[in-house]
Write a structure and sequence with these properties.
Keywords: Membrane, Transmembrane, Transmembrane helix. By secondary structure, this protein is mainly α. It has one domain. Helices cover 63% and strands 3% of the residues. The chain contains 10 helices and 4 strands; from the N terminus they run αβααβαααβαααβα. The strands form 2 sheets. Strands 1-2 form a two-stranded antiparallel ribbon. It has a two-stranded antiparallel sheet with strand order 3-4.
């Protein structure tokens, strides 16, 4: 449902400290796990179900701590959530490395399966970096909604809403300073998608060194997948 200007002025949901819904992050994580499970065996560094089972084991306690909305945060919660994202990210980058090696040295002839694998790696790249940005920016999803702005860590990203308070009224009403807006998972997934397609920032700017480093790694990964892997696969098809 589209939020109205009246809704924005109430400062909801941050004002009521309801927290983000748990379901979108679970769906995104399970999608990344499923994409990994569907990769060809030659792109995996371990038996097919080892990493997915580990990732599911990490996900279960995260859901138990915050089953519906992300309102509770402990040190263990942060370690588990960051470890989960890290495992998915590393396994996907390794799959990309093996995929490139197969292209360069192994003389892969199955172009169709290669195209599908490249798409899986690219989609996983979008999801996992979106999750990573979501987990790290301003202290993570719990801090962004539960802590007062004065207590939040420095932002890793500057969204357009963070600087719209001096725009025309119908735009300013949804700005951070006016409506107490904070980014949600969808905002970070959008950031990740644009970074993987444009290979550079678009409307959201990285501010911290770690944000710039992560966006650089993601851009290079997406560039390799898009230009090297897919181009080689298309040439094989012809």
């Amino acid at each position: 449902m589209t939020r109205t200007r009246a809704d924005a002025s109430i400062r909801h949901p941050r004002h009521e400290r309801r927290g983000e819904a748990r379901l979108p992050a679970v769906v995104a994580t399970l999608t990344a796990i499923a994409l990994y499970l569907l990769l060809p065996q030659r792109l995996l560094i371990a038996p097919r179900y080892v990493l997915p089972v580990l990732e599911c084991l990490l996900l279960v306690p995260l859901i138990a701590i915050n089953p519906k909305r992300l309102t509770r945060q402990t040190k263990a919660f942060r370690v588990l959530s960051l470890t989960l994202v890290g495992v998915i990210a590393v396994s996907n980058l390794v799959a990309l490395t093996i995929l490139i090696h197969e292209l360069v040295y192994a003389g892969v002839k199955d172009g169709r399966s290669l195209l599908v694998a490249a798409l899986q790696v690219w989609l996983t790249n979008v999801i996992v970096f979106g999750l990573a940005y979501w987990e790290l920016d301003r202290g993570g999803p719990v801090s962004r909604t539960q802590a007062p702005r004065s207590a939040l860590p420095l932002a890793d990203f500057r969204f357009s809403q963070d600087e719209n308070d001096d725009a025309v009224q119908e735009v300013a009403d949804g700005a951070s300073a006016t409506s107490d807006w904070v980014p949600t998972l969808m905002d970070y997934l959008y950031l990740s998608t644009t970074n993987s397609t444009a290979f550079s920032p678009t409307d959201t700017m990285p501010l911290s060194t770690r944000a710039k480093a992560m966006m650089a790694v993601q851009s290079v990964s997406a560039l390799l997948t898009s230009l090297l892997v897919i181009a080689r696969a298309v040439s094989i098809l012809h």
